Amino acid sequence: MLAVVLMTPLHAETVSGLYTARGVVSDQSVEARREVLPMLLAEVVGRLVGEPDRLELQRRWPSLMAELQAAERYVGQFRYQTQETAEGQSELLLRVQFDESGLARLIQRLQLPQWGADRPEVLVVLAWQDGNRRDVLDSSPTAQLPADLATEVKQVAQRAGLPVALPLMDLQDQRDLPEQEVRAGFVDRLARVANRYGAQAVLLGRLRLANDAVATEFGQRGADVSWSLHQTNQATRYAEASRDVRGGLEAGVWMAARAMAERYALGAGEQVQTEGALASAAHVYVLGIENLSDLKKVQQHLFERTVVSDAALLEAKPWGSEKLTLFSVSLRGSVAKLEQALAVGRLLRPTSRPVDEIDSATTTVPLEDAGAGGRSRGRYNRAVTELAPPPATNELWYRLH
Prior knowledge:
By secondary structure, the protein is an alpha+beta fold. 31% of the residues lie in helices and 27% in strands. The strands form four sheets. Strands 6, 7, 8, 9, 10 and 11 form a six-stranded mixed sheet that branches. A five-stranded mixed sheet has the order 13-14-12-16-15, with helices on one face. It is globular.
């Protein structure tokens, strides 16, 4: 467990490519395409629900089986491309873009969890060993082996829909993450590293490569890998694998993807609670929005959260020596999910209601055209009211970083 206050952010990701998958096909025939489509659709649905393992995906949601076999109905567009294999041969790839709205309806109809595109990066700290060579994998490796390993990490994470980052391994990281301590699984300094990178989760791994002269592709080299996942205010999780490099990396990355989805994905019941008595809402108060650029950043941040179904600017006014901006936010899920989602990116820092509160009836300061795009653009073009809003059942207070 990481018991730290995270101040410096990793770059949180609005993940792209969630609806795209590629697979090898024998030719460009309809039959060859239909053969690979169920596997590609399973990969995409796995990203959207937070279960990258296709077998586990079908075990958890058996109703998906029939939909996977009818994968063609969810295809938006496709094209073919070629790539060179490790043996120097050319192979044909099918690249499919699945229909986003169609899959959204599928997820809702089958009552699957929905993990949106706003996802926190996970810091991967991996100590590797190849014979007498050993080190901690860094973000810009120059030697061939660690470069190949970094590529595999990123590709496995991309297929799982999990944004990851590797440490810089500069002088500070070398002090905090010595290879011997990472390999031994010591986590005494992990909180300091998490604090430096602003990571809500650190995936700590130990990988030992086998002396495998048979494998022609790096990802197929034999390896023993063990992992531990450390999250803020969460129990530590563990995984291990004794197989090839790719399978060993998948064991850890998939564990992290499942854990992040459990925290950030909307459950089936939450997705439909957008209207009526079951709907939830919150008033989000933000201190420190000083100009139109700040306002647009905050609006964009709100609209990118999957849990937010709508947001409206209610007022902006002086608040002591600062400026206070109030948003009314309608939710697809709980207020707790909103708090978790707003932590992604660290644009907004949670704060308490200031004690030097001024009279709530103070005349508000109308903002100029505050349109920031998104689902409710027109709602921002009205002048804010001079009347203080009614008390919110759920109040969240933030300060702009």
